[in-house]
Amino acid sequence: MGKQIGVLRVGVTALASAAFVASWSSGFLVPAIATVDVAPLTLLVWRFVPLAVVLLAIVLLSRAANGVTAPDLRRQALIGLFAQFGYCTAVYAAVASGVATGTTALIDAVQPLVVAMLVGPLLGLKVRGAQWAGLVVGAAGVFLVVRSQLDDSTAHPAAYLWPAAAMVCLIVGTFLQRRSEPRTSTLVTLTIHVTVTALALILITAIAGQLMPPASVSFWLAVVFSAVFPTLAAYGLYWWLLRRVGITALNALLFPVAPTTAAAGAFILGEPLTIVTLIGFALCGAGVVAVLVSEARTRPAAQSRVQSASAVDVR
């Protein structure tokens, strides 16, 4: 019976991981397709506002937020400002500026490389040589991909700072979530994040004069799709998988998002996908693998040292 439960758990995690990659990839494609005739902020605000109303109603009716304290609410609101508002706004700005969807996804996918650099200062752990090698290889991969698409891109070179900003926002949000005790369910966490994002977007969209939505059917279809898949499915699975498999494995899942998005972008949008681009993807993948493998080998040793120190303290 225990073995069957273990197999079922692995199967559920694998299906959730595949769904996460597909739904997260769609978040890069929607703005590229749906914002041709609509301001990105307009699509983004109406992606979040109706969803916030629905989620708040579900949480209130189900009383899922019972027991949530004010500090929990403030903590999750801060995480939501980084992980959803900051991340989504930067991604939409990147795509609206002409940055290819695959390139945007790839820059976001180098999170494990950046995390490795932050391991020492934030957690007091030493970055190993293999991790530094992975950083160099991954950075070379990102450079090749971006360079291969510059000639055919309409984006100004400064526009590539947007996907980098998106990556930083998601890293900050993820670290804040991991460093805090998880006291809210995935539903409540998602509701807080979506609501905070919706309120922030209403403010900046109103200031920009882009709050009023068009009456076209295609716009509202894009709103529904982006609310269900890149938001509900992708973010819900993100926080669920973060608790289930940990930050290292979750970061590893972000890299398949890049080639998935690039392939879809080439097929649907006609974005360039050259040999140099593919080599860049391969190098970035190798760098990510090097960092994750090194991190996986380091963790048991670190845990062993902590357990030994605890045993000494007890004695």
UniProtKB/TrEMBL annotation:
<feature type="transmembrane region" description="Helical">
    <location>
        <begin position="248"/>
        <end position="269"/>
    </location>
</feature>
<dbReference type="InterPro" id="IPR050638">
    <property type="entry name" value="AA-Vitamin_Transporters"/>
</dbReference>
<feature type="transmembrane region" description="Helical">
    <location>
        <begin position="105"/>
        <end position="125"/>
    </location>
</feature>
<protein>
    <submittedName>
        <fullName>Putative DMT superfamily transporter inner membrane protein</fullName>
    </submittedName>
</protein>
<feature type="transmembrane region" description="Helical">
    <location>
        <begin position="217"/>
        <end position="241"/>
    </location>
</feature>
<dbReference type="Pfam" id="PF00892">
    <property type="entry name" value="EamA"/>
</dbReference>
<feature type="domain" description="EamA">
    <location>
        <begin position="159"/>
        <end position="292"/>
    </location>
</feature>
<keyword id="KW-1133">Transmembrane helix</keyword>
<feature type="transmembrane region" description="Helical">
    <location>
        <begin position="132"/>
        <end position="150"/>
    </location>
</feature>
<dbReference type="InterPro" id="IPR037185">
    <property type="entry name" value="EmrE-like"/>
</dbReference>
<keyword id="KW-0812">Transmembrane</keyword>
<feature type="transmembrane region" description="Helical">
    <location>
        <begin position="45"/>
        <end position="65"/>
    </location>
</feature>
<feature type="domain" description="EamA">
    <location>
        <begin position="17"/>
        <end position="146"/>
    </location>
</feature>
<comment type="similarity">
    <text>Belongs to the EamA transporter family.</text>
</comment>
<feature type="transmembrane region" description="Helical">
    <location>
        <begin position="77"/>
        <end position="99"/>
    </location>
</feature>
<feature type="transmembrane region" description="Helical">
    <location>
        <begin position="275"/>
        <end position="293"/>
    </location>
</feature>
<feature type="transmembrane region" description="Helical">
    <location>
        <begin position="188"/>
        <end position="211"/>
    </location>
</feature>
<dbReference type="InterPro" id="IPR000620">
    <property type="entry name" value="EamA_dom"/>
</dbReference>
<feature type="transmembrane region" description="Helical">
    <location>
        <begin position="156"/>
        <end position="176"/>
    </location>
</feature>
<feature type="transmembrane region" description="Helical">
    <location>
        <begin position="12"/>
        <end position="33"/>
    </location>
</feature>
<keyword id="KW-0472">Membrane</keyword>
<dbReference type="GO" id="GO:0016020">
    <property type="term" value="C:membrane"/>
</dbReference>
